[in-house]
Specification:
single chain, 394 residues, alpha+beta, 6-stranded antiparallel β-sheet, 4-stranded antiparallel β-sheet, 18 strands
Length: 394
């Protein structure tokens, strides 16, 4: 779960990470009152879960109440890279002598937290990594040992931070690691991490991603979730107990088991198609779950064809077939479906589909054949037709 900047700073404050004082606002009057509270000059900051706010005009300096109102009026409702601004963070302005970049991320390949520090703060870290990878100091932390003081000093020396702030920066890294572990995050990022004229180190930004699977242990963090900021299809799937990730393609994918679904995505891509989603209906899926899955997949208007790839173990092929028949009777899909059933009760499932004689439903015996067929149907659907190029209906 991604947090907004002000939410991240509230979590930082729990762990003693120094941040500028600020106040949340959702309207122009609230923003002006917040400006009076934090003092002038202050900064009016758009709250959206994406970078590049400053370049888009979403961060403005204000010298008085009128300026806060003017900037708040302009920023609220602004579109920043596809996201609409509904919230603001009014923050006391900071004097800056140096800008650094710091982060803690879970490195799955190393199976350990990775700390990164760079003196090129304020820039997109992806650009820094591409143009000057040596400018980023990196260090893996053994999760059984945890962060040690020498880890922070080593990173600070390797990154080339000013000598007089090596220890404060190292201490800051320790606090960020504490946030990472204590809040069960997968990403803690500060860009920029600033050094003030008084040589104090502060987090001027906060980007946090929390592990949703751990939220049951953090009731206060679970309350930060705002369903209105989530993708509509992913929100619908979550409400129905489905594991769904939206992708950029036009072929809907449903399978039972994460490994099978991942393999299906690869096979469809290999056949020249572009998956529109990852959807794992889970083991033992019943007819109603299949119907719900179809509704979620088809709620994406980009979907031109759908592939069901089911390998039955505890999932029964006849239940999958009944779910698909039920879905067609309830929502009348207008796009073609390709169904590959194998395993438990697969013959009974194919028999039920044949008897139902559903429009635009095609069966295939193999995963490769199903992938090839659904790619053809998606292409035909894009050209205004949903007829199969060859082969028989069930």
């Amino acid at each position: 779960m991604d947090l907004l900047e002000y939410q991240g700073k509230q979590l930082f404050a729990r762990h003693g990470v120094p941040v500028p004082r600020g106040r949340h606002a959702t309207s122009v009057p609230e923003a002006q009152d917040a400006g009076e509270e934090v003092g002038y000059p202050c900064v009016v900051k758009a709250q959206v879960q994406i970078g590049g706010r400053g370049k888009a005009g979403g961060i403005k300096l204000a010298a008085d109440r009128d300026a806060v109102g003017e900037h708040a009026q302009a920023i609220l409702g602004m579109d920043i890279r596809g996201l609409t601004v509904h919230e603001l963070w009014i923050e006391a302005a900071s004097e800056i002598e140096a800008e650094y970049y710091a982060s803690v991320v879970f490195d799955r390949s190393a199976k350990a937290p990775l700390l990164m520090l760079s003196t090129k703060g304020g820039m997109d870290i992806e650009e820094v990594a591409e143009e000057d990878p040596d400018a980023i100091a990196r260090l893996h932390v053994d999760p059984l040992i945890g962060f040690q003081e020498f880890h922070g000093r080593r990173l600070a020396f390797e990154a080339g931070v000013d000598a007089d702030v090596v220890r404060p920066v190292a201490a800051m890294l320790g606090k960020l690691y504490e946030v990472f572990v204590g809040e069960e995050a997968t990403l803690v990022e500060v860009n920029p991490l600033i050094v003030t004229p008084e040589r104090e180190v502060r987090a001027l930004d906060a980007k946090l991603t929390l592990d949703e699977n751990a939220l049951y242990r953090h009731a206060e963090n679970a309350e930060l979730r705002d369903p209105s900021r989530e993708d509509p299809q992913e929100r619908m799937a979550k409400e129905r107990g489905l594991i769904y990730v939206k992708l950029d393609g036009d072929i809907g994918i449903l399978g039972n088991g994460a490994g099978l679904v991942m393999s299906t995505l690869d096979v469809v891509a290999e056949a020249g198609g572009s998956p529109a989603n990852f959807l794992d209906a889970g083991g033992g899926s019943k007819a109603q779950a299949i119907t719900s899955a179809v509704e979620v997949i088809l709620s994406n208007p980009k979907v031109k064809a759908v592939l069901f790839n089911i390998f039955g173990g505890i999932t029964r092929g006849d239940e999958v077939a009944r779910g698909l028949i039920q879905a067609f009777n309830q929502i009348h899909p207008q796009v073609p479906f390709v169904v590959r059933l194998d395993g438990t009760n697969d013959e009974e499932g194919r028999r039920l589909l044949a008897q139902a004689d559903l429009p635009n439903v095609y069966t295939e015996a193999t995963m490769d054949g199903a992938a090839k067929r659904v790619v053809e149907l998606a292409a035909a659907s894009g050209n205004g037709s949903t007829r199969a190029s060859d082969g028989a209906r069930p």
